[in-house]
Design brief:
The chain is built from 11 helices and 14 strands. By secondary structure, the chain is of the alpha/beta class. The protein has 2 domains: about 160 residues, 3-Layer(aba) Sandwich (Rossmann fold); about 160 residues, Dihydrodipicolinate Reductase, domain 2 (2-Layer Sandwich), CATH 3.30.360.10. It has an 8-stranded mixed beta sheet with strand order 8-9-10-7-11-12-13-14. It has a 6-stranded parallel beta sheet with strand order 3-2-1-4-5-6, with helices on both faces. Helix 4 packs parallel to helix 5. It binds nicotinamide-adenine-dinucleotide. The site of nicotinamide-adenine-dinucleotide has 23 residues, from loops. Nicotinamide-adenine-dinucleotide (NAD) binds next to loops.
């Protein structure tokens, strides 16, 4: 059996540490996901934080530990490079991985803060046939895959509107130059990615935002109305200064409705009303359970191997993530022009 040698840059929360959260379904980190498969071996790890690095080495029994990722890349012939560092370093590190000859790249979302670098990364990976997967992990979640099947098979009819939110508390005052954006950028990238997954290509956006500290600092809230190519309309909110986190999509079709998010799923179909003669209403029916469920980190790792074997990114691709980034930045741009309708680019 071919063993895919993997190295990770970034042994922080999503790289390794969240595995300690007793409430999360496991595995819930990249190292956990990769370690769950028999044909992947985590052989090297890198972090500039030596305490984290040491802990990572002990926890996962990885001996080759580095504080400089260039060294990790040159000393190990890695098949897979996993990038779980801060967003503004993603593309630079991935391009270094390409130069070092890795066979596939699994990178955290958002793809990068710099759209030009993100474009370069997608272009270079395509030219060299190096699969690039970006961790928009819900694409590997069996419930989201089931929701997509339900929509594709016409269970809720033709999609008319998609209402989405990625709500969270007031963010710290952080500079755009380093962080790219606020809640719409960091959590909203999952939301935008799923709008594309369920609704298809997006034709225009009209944004609104609350940016209390001015344009050089990230937004507190960003909302948008979104026009899809197929005439579906989207309404989204990112941030919103709530005292809770909520991530949810409400997909409304001509014959039903489907809600899916962090707190569960609901499915409604059109039935003859039991309350009004001659009316049709929505009735809640059970959301079908998938045959089996595993956390998306396993599906992602499995798809990484599949992508290397076929030479083609199989799911949650760099191209998908680049589109999400273009849409988010166009929403910000539109908001700064009083909500002018703009085509994402
Ligand atoms: N998919 C998800 O749901 C999800 C969840 C959390 C975080 N993320 C993303 O993952 C990335 C990391 O987030 P996090 O919460 O794990 O952050 P974190 O700060 O906990 O971890 C990042 C790690 O990278 C290390 N690092 C930074 N620069 C480095 C360098 N040059 N070389 C080596 N190591 C370096 C840091 O020391 C830190 O340990 C971000 O892009 C974030 O958006 C995604």
């Amino acid at each position: 059996m071919k063993i895919f040698k993997t190295g990770i840059i970034g042994c922080g929360r999503i790289g390794s540490l969240l595995e300690e959260d007793p409430l999360r379904g496991k595995p819930c980190t990249h190292t956990g996901g990769f370690s769950a498969l028999p044909n992947i071996k985590m052989v090297a790890g890198c972090d500039i934080n030596e305490t984290r690095l040491k802990k990572f080495g002990q926890q996962w029994k990885v001996k080759k530990l580095y504080t400089d990722y260039h060294e990790m890349l040159s000393e190990n012939e890695l098949d897979i490079l996993c990038i779980a560092t801060w967003t503004n370093q993603h593309a630079t590190m991935a391009l270094e991985g390409v130069r070092a000859g890795v066979k596939g790249i699994f990178c955290e979302k958002p793809i990068d803060t710099d759209i030009k670098l993100a474009r370069k990364l997608v272009r270079v990976c395509k030219q060299k046939n190096i699969p690039l997967l970006i961790n928009h992990e819900r694409r590997w979640d069996a419930y989201y895959q089931k929701a997509k099947k339900l929509i594709q098979t016409g269970k809720i009819g033709e999609i008319k509107t998609i209402i989405g939110n990625a709500l969270s508390w007031k963010p710290d005052v952080l500079p755009v130059s380093q962080y790219g954006g606020g809640p719409l950028f960091h959590d909203g990238t999952h939301l935008i990615d799923l709008l594309l997954y369920f609704g298809g290509p997006i034709e225009w956006v009209s944004g609104q935002e609350t940016r209390p500290k001015g344009k050089h600092y990230i937004e507190e809230t960003a909302c948008a109305m979104i026009g899809f190519q197929n005439d579906t309309i989207g309404f989204i909110e990112g941030g919103g200064a709530r005292k809770y986190f909520n991530f949810e999509l409400d997909i409304q079709g001509s014959e039903g409705r489907l809600l899916i998010g962090n707190s569960g799923r609901e499915l409604y179909v059109t039935r003859k009303s039991k309350r009004f003669k001659g009316f049709q209403e929505l009735e809640k029916i059970p959301f079908p359970e998938p045959k089996r469920y595993e956390t998306p980190f396993i599906g992602g790792a499995r798809d990484m191997v599949k992508s290397i074997r076929t030479g083609k990114s199989s799911n949650a691709t760099g191209e998908d993530a680049l589109k999400a980034l273009e849409i988010i930045y166009t929403i910000y741009k539109s908001a700064q022009q009083k909500g002018k309708r703009l085509k994402p680019k």
